[in-house]
Amino acid sequence: MEFIALRTFQAVVEEGGILSASRKLNTVQSNVTNRIKRLEEELGSELFYRKGRGLELAPSGKVLLEYTHQLLQLESRAGAAVRQVGEQSGELRIGSMESFAALRLPPLLKSLRDAHKGVDLFVQTDRSGELVDQVSNHKLDCAFVGGPVNHPDLIAVEVLQEELVLVRAKHNRQEKLPLILFREGCAYRARSLAWQREAGYQTGDMMELGTLDGILGCVAMGLGCTLMPRWIVTNNRHCDDLEIETIAPHLANIPTTLIYHRNSLPMKAIDTLIQQAREQKIPGDR
C-alpha cells in the first residue's frame, strides 16, 4: 500500500465524499476515485458502500481506517526522526498565531538562528485551533497558540500571559458597536464572545477579518470594537487613533503556550524557543 493511497482514503472518510476529498487534497476527482479503486483491488475488499451520491464505510473500511491513522502517524514520526534537530543541524517547523508573529516571533527566530546556526526554519501562521490540529497530526513540530490547551497528544508549556483589552476608536462613544474578530478557531475570538455575553453587550452585528492590521484598521475607522492584547495595540501603527479599556481579569488574562507532540523526539531548539519566549520583553507588556 502506498501512503498517498492511505492519505486519500483517510481524506474521503474525513470529508465525507470524493468531491470534498479532492478539494482538500488539491487534486481532481478522478485521481481520488482511481486511488480508492486501486486500494480496494489491492486489498481484495470493498472499502465503501455506494449509496446514491454518498459513501458509507464498509466493515473492511472501518478496519483499514484504524490502521491508516496509525501508519500515517508513524510516517510523520519517522520524518521527524530523520529531521531531528540537534545543536547545529536539522529542520524545525514552527506555527504561530498571527498576533504572536507580529512582534514577538521575529526576535525569537533571530535568537534561534544564533543558537542553532545550521537549523532550517519553516514558519506558518494560522488560527490557534488550526495550529493545534497540525501539531497533533505531526504537520508542525511546535506552535505558539492562545491557551489554555488541553489535548491528550500534546504538551503545552505556558510562556507568557497576555492582557486582553477592549479597543475602540478614539472619541467614539457609540454604545453598541459591532465586534470585529478573527475567524473561528482564534483563542481571542472565543474570549471576545465570552466577554460579550458576560457584559450584556448585545449586538447582532459582527465582522470577521483574517489579519491583525485589518481588524485594528477597521476599529480605528470607527467601524467596530475588538478585544486584543494590550501590547499589540500600543505597538500598532493605528495606536494614535485607538483607545483601550480594561476588562474583568478572568476574561483579560489569557496564556500564550508553546505546544508540541507528546511522542515527538527531544529537540533542543524547542527548549531554546521556550526559554527565549519567557525572557522576552516587548514595549507595552505589563
SSE order, one letter for each helix or strand: HHHEEHEHHEHEEEHEHEHEHEH
Global mean pLDDT:
86
Uncertain regions: pLDDT < 50 for 5+ in a row?
Answer: none
- What assembly state would you assign to the polypeptide chains in this entry? single chain
Largest sheet: 7 strands, mixed
Name the overall outline: globular
**Which strand-content bin applies to the residues?**
15-25%
Under CATH, the homologous superfamily of the largest domain reads: Periplasmic binding protein-like II
Terminal CA distance: 55 Å
Which class of the largest domain in CATH terms?
Answer: Alpha Beta
- In the CATH hierarchy, the third-tier topology of the largest domain is known as D-Maltodextrin-Binding Protein, domain 2
The number of distinct helices, counting runs of at least 4 residues, comes to 12
Total tally of structural domains? 3
What's the number of extended β-strand segments? 11
Q: Helix coverage percent of residues?
A: 40-55%
- CATH architecture annotation name of the largest domain: 3-Layer(aba) Sandwich
